[in-house]
Design goal:
The protein is of the alpha/beta class. It is 42% helix and 25% strand. The chain contains 10 helices and 10 strands. The protein has a 5-stranded parallel β-sheet with strand order 2-1-3-4-5, with helices on both faces. It has a 5-stranded antiparallel β-sheet with strand order 7-6-10-9-8, with helices on both faces. The longest helix has 34 residues, at 132-165. The radius of gyration is 21 Å and the shape is elongated.
């Protein structure tokens, strides 16, 4: 088994755009690794100054570390996975941990990966794509998502009535193109029975939603440059594959250091107006 550095990773969004290590405390991580994986990762991670790394060599060690010390994430080695590991992950899940679990795996079968997610794993790293740089990126994304979802949850509690009862679609999306939040009106507009169904299904907005993927790219470019977009019109494909026109008003949300966090805005169905305009030509 060898660790690889994949040049395509250079095209990913930098960790600094998701999680500013220079303005935050170091990420505190606990790794539950088998002997082989420990031998591979430990030397590489020792050079990552932005991390505080702890190693658990047994589940008893991991239980003790979780009990006595707070962490930002757990990295769980599943290369020599046995069924009782699912029982242990379920036990961790029931503890309602405030930090994510990221699994390292060589088993890419969807059934196995789905079971990992069902038992509380938040993200998966393929061993043949594993490098310390890539692993830190995945961990940073997961920590960012978990922290941000807490803020979203608090926002929803304060403004649940407004969001749930609004007649316009309301959304929050990541710059990468997945939904963080959607209200019932948006789910209905896009042909879904609930916001949860829509968020689970639309994991790549650019490809899955927009008829012209370049429209999403233009949408993101404008928001990155101007921090807002007004009456941005696009054709999108609903769940039932029918095509409609939409108009979006959105803004970019940034942290105190100017790092882009997410986009939020409103969506209206613009199909009737576009068809009327076509008839008048």
């Amino acid at each position: 088994m060898t660790l690889v550095d994949n040049n395509s990773l250079n095209d990913e969004i930098s960790v600094q755009n998701i999680f500013s290590f220079t303005n935050e405390k170091k990420l505190s991580l606990v790794f539950y690794l088998e002997e082989d994986m420990y031998g591979l990762l430990a030397p590489l991670l020792s050079f990552r100054d932005e991390l505080t790394v702890n190693y658990a060599r047994s589940r008893q060690d991991l239980d003790h570390l979780i009990k006595v010390q707070g962490f930002d994430a757990i990295i769980y080695d599943t290369l020599n996975f046995s069924p009782d590991h699912f029982e242990y992950l379920e036990k961790l899940q029931k503890q309602d941990l405030s930090f994510p679990i990221i699994a390292i795996t060589a088993d890419y079968q969807s059934d196995f990966v789905d079971r990992l997610f069902d038992h509380g794993v938040e993200d998966v790293v393929a061993v043949d794509e594993l490098s310390s740089k890539h692993l830190v990126r995945v961990i940073s994304y997961a920590v960012f998502r978990r922290r941000h979802l807490k803020k979203v949850s608090a926002f929803e509690k304060r403004h649940a009535g407004i969001i749930q009862n609004a007649t316009e679609g309301i959304f929050q999306t990541t710059p990468g193109g997945s939904y963080i939040l959607a209200n019932p009106a948006l789910a209905e507009l896009y042909g879904y029975s609930s916001p949860e169904e829509m968020i689970d299904d639309l994991t790549n907005i650019e490809i899955q939603l927009y008829i012209d993927p370049d429209q999403r790219k233009r949408f993101v470019e404008i928001l990155r440059k101007d921090d807002k977009v007004i009456n941005f019109e696009s054709q999108i494909k609903r769940k039932d594959n029918t095509v409609i026109w939409i108009s979006e008003n959105a803004r970019a949300v940034r942290d105190d250091e100017g790092t882009l966090l997410y986009f939020e805005g409103f969506v209206r169905n613009n199909t009737d107006r576009k068809e009327n305009e076509k008839k008048l030509r």
